[in-house]
Each structure stands twice: as C-alpha cells, then as structure tokens.
C-alpha cells in the first residue's frame, strides 16, 4: 500500500528532506504550510505530491510526520498532535536546531504509545524557502537523532530507512549534549557573526569606506548572518542557557586577549594565533559540519572581461559542474579573485588541475 508522509513546514529543510525521501520511496508526500505560496511552489517543483490545509485529517492518515517548522512553531504543533487519533505505527520526527524543549514537549505523545524521534540534519544554508531546497543537501552531513527513553530500536531503524536518500551520517546524542554542542559550533558563532556585522555597521556610519571594503573576505566570514532572523530568534530562545554560558566564557577570553593587546605582549599574541591555527588546521576535512563548508576554489584573474566564460568553458569541457561562480572585487578594478564553488572536493581537485593547466593561479581557502 502506498505510504503517506505529512511534511509540516515546506521550506528549505522540509523541501530538501522531501526530495531525499522521494529518491528512495514511492510514498505520497503531502505538504502543510501556513504560507500557501510555498506549497504551490513545492508542488510545481515536484517536491511534494500535494498540499492540504487540514492538519488533523492529514496527520491521522500519515505513516511519517516530519516537522520542518521554526522551533517555537514545532513546539506548538506537537502539542496540537496530542488530541489527534494518529495511526498506531506512525513515526513523528522533526528537524529543529535545538532538541531539549522539543523532546520534553513530545513526552505526552510517547506516553500514548506514539513514536517521536528528535532529528537534526546538520547542514543547511543562509537561504530559506522551498525554492532553495536540494535533494543532496544532507549528503555526508551529520544527522543527529535524539531519543526519548524506551524508544524501540526498530523504529529508529525504520526512520533511518525513510531518510536513506539523504545519504547523511546518522548519529545518536542525548538532547542536552546536542544543545551544548550545537551551541558551541553553530548557535554561538551565529550570534558572533551578527555582532561582527553590527560592529561594521556602527563603524561604517563614521567612515563610509568601511562599507565598500567589507564586501570581500569580511562578507564571506559573516555569511551566516544573512540567515532567517526569525529562525535564529527561536534557536537562541530555546538554547538560552548554553548561549549565555558561551557568551560569559567568550567575554572572559576577550578580556584576556584585550590584556595581551594592551600590554603589546608579542610572544603571547603569536601563541594565541598559532594555537588557533594549529587547532583549526587539524580539524577533519571532507565531512560537513553544522556550518556548511563550501568546496571553493579561488582563481587570480587579471583581465576580468571574458575570464568567467573562459573558465566555465574549460570546466564544462572537463565535465565538471559548478554550483556558483563570483568575482570578489576586493583589489580594486584591475585585479580580481574569482571564487568558484563545487559540490564535492573531488570536483574541486579536478578543476584545480585543469585551471592551472591554463596558467591561472589557484588556491583553496
Ligand atoms: N536553515 C538551515 O540551515 C537549517 C534549519 N534547521 C531547522 O529547520 C527548521 C526549518 O528551517 P528552514 O527550512 O530553514 O526554514 P524555512 O523558512 O525555509 O521553512 C520553514 C517553513 O515553515 C513554515 N511555517 C512556519 N510556521 C508554520 C506553522 N505554524 N504551520 C505550518 N507551517 C509553518 C513557513 O511558512 C516556512 O515555509 C527550523 O526549525 C530550523 O531550526 C535545521 C538545520 C539547518
Ligand atoms: O548556513 C550554514 O552553513 C548554517 O549555519 C546551516 C545550519 C543552520 C542551522 C542548523 O541547525 C544547522 C546548519
């Protein structure tokens, strides 16, 4: 019998999961979203088979229910599910960036014998909406499951089966540990990125050159500050304790660095940078973390006119597809750096070889 998936929240992550599910399953995917335009677009793009405005009716027929809504909304909707008569074997999961409060909210469902498995695919983008959804978004990314006590293992295996098409790397974690770890590597860095941008904004009011010069590397390192403010408001709210702890730690650290700078302590400043470099350089390559790594290649170009078409032609001849190409004009008009993004490290390596054969200089960030 054809199985039914109810996707609640048909945006970037929900749409990407739907596409991944479709790769491996011949199930009917029904979308439910407050924004009807997103549902229409999702249907046109064949991300979902159909959509509905009748949550109860759809939930009661579903074999798999996926919440891909902002965390605060997910909490509200999980509560609504409590009064529905769900199929006895249904699996409910979510994709929220925080897990503690969501699992607590799902406890009453489990007490009624319904399986809820917390999920967090740790890859994404600063973009929102189903228009940016991709079936391969979670390939090689960590996909964390957080379980309520007594969740049957066969249900976890079944959910992994549903999500096989993501080609993600599934991992189990306790909800508390998840929230601390993601606080460290994703949520707090997000606050930092936003604060760096706001510092530039404040300083740019005094000197408008700052705005122009920030367009290069600064923009790259603060890319995540362009993500959905409402999504991040929810994340910060639901990981408040960890974020406050990390902010306090950061301020202690900044005071220590401030002290080194004030004293002009050259050796210790060197040690500070060198320690950070060593630790960063030793981080594993090739696996995706929460913050998306791009397989970028930088190419020095002198004459910008015509160079993009030349490089795209030689890459096309070499059968290498690119996901993005952009000139970063950080060196005024004559010189430029071309940044080309690839889907895999392998593509980037092949491209590097080919481009260098044409006498361009390349480097990886
Ligand atoms: N964006 C990212 O990179 C990642 C996001 N996440 C998590 O995924 C979830 C969704 O994020 P995105 O897909 O990026 O957001 P999105 O904005 O692209 O999609 C969210 C969708 O939920 C809909 N929605 C909001 N409230 C609703 C409600 N009450 N009922 C039905 N639909 C509702 C919105 O209309 C929107 O279409 C969030 O919980 C976020 O924490 C997890 C991993 C990565
Ligand atoms: O844009 C990026 O790379 C991200 O930071 C993606 C992201 C956002 C939220 C998550 O919970 C996990 C990953």
Automatic annotation (TrEMBL):
EC category name: oxidoreductase
Pathway: Amino-acid biosynthesis; L-tyrosine biosynthesis; (4-hydroxyphenyl)pyruvate from prephenate (NAD(+) route): step 1/1
Family annotation (InterPro entries): 6-PGluconate_DH-like_C_sf, ACT-like_dom_sf, ACT_dom, AHAS_small-like_ACT, NAD(P)-bd_dom_sf, PDH_C, PDH_N, Preph/Arog_dehydrog
Catalytic activity annotation: prephenate + NAD(+) = 3-(4-hydroxyphenyl)pyruvate + CO2 + NADH
Domain annotation Prephenate/arogenate dehydrogenase: ranges: 3-291
SUPFAM superfamilies, sorted: 6-phosphogluconate dehydrogenase C-terminal domain-like, ACT-like, NAD(P)-binding Rossmann-fold domains
A Pfam family the protein falls into: PDH_C
Domain of life: Bacteria
Similarity field: Belongs to the prephenate/arogenate dehydrogenase family.
Record's protein name: Prephenate dehydrogenase
């Amino acid at each position: 019998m054809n199985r039914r998936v109810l996707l609640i929240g048909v945006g970037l992550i929900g749409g990407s999961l739907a596409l991944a599910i479709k790769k491996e399953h011949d199930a009917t995917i029904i979308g439910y979203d407050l924004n009807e335009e997103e549902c229409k677009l999702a249907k046109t793009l064949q991300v979902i088979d159909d959509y509905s405005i009748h949550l109860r009716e759809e939930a009661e027929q579903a074999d798999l229910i996926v919440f891909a809504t902002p965390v605060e909304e997910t909490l509200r909707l999980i509560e609504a599910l409590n009064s529905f008569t769900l199929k006895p074997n249904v699996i409910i999961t979510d994709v929220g960036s925080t897990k503690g409060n969501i699992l607590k909210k799902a406890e009453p469902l489990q007490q009624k014998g319904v399986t809820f498995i917390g999920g967090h695919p740790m890859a994404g983008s600063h973009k929102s909406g189903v228009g940016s959804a991709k079936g391969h978004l979670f390939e090689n990314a960590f996909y964390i499951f957080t379980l309520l006590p007594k969740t049957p293992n066969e249900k976890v295996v079944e959910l992994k089966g549903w999500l096989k098409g993501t080609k993600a790397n599934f991992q189990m974690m306790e909800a508390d540990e998840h929230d601390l770890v993601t606080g460290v590597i994703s949520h707090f860095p997000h606050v930092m990125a936003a604060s760096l941008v706001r510092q530039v904004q404040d300083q740019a009011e005094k000197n408008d050159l700052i705005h122009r010069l920030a367009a290069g590397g600064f923009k790259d390192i603060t890319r995540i500050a362009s993500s959905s403010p409402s999504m991040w408001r929810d994340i910060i709210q639901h990981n408040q304790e960890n974020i406050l702890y990390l902010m306090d730690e950061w301020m202690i650290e900044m005071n220590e660095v401030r002290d080194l700078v004030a004293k002009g302590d050259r050796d210790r400043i060197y040690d500070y940078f060198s320690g950070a470099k060593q630790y960063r350089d030793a981080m594993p390559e090739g696996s995706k973390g929460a913050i998306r790594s791009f397989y970028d290649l930088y190419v020095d170009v002198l004459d910008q006119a015509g160079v993009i078409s030349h490089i795209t032609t030689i890459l096309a001849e070499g059968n290498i597809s690119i996901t993005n190409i952009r000139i970063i004009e950080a060196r005024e008009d004559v010189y430029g750096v071309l940044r080309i993004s690839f889907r895999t490290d392998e593509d980037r390596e092949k491209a590097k070889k080919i481009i260098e054969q044409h006498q361009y200089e390349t480097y990886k960030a």
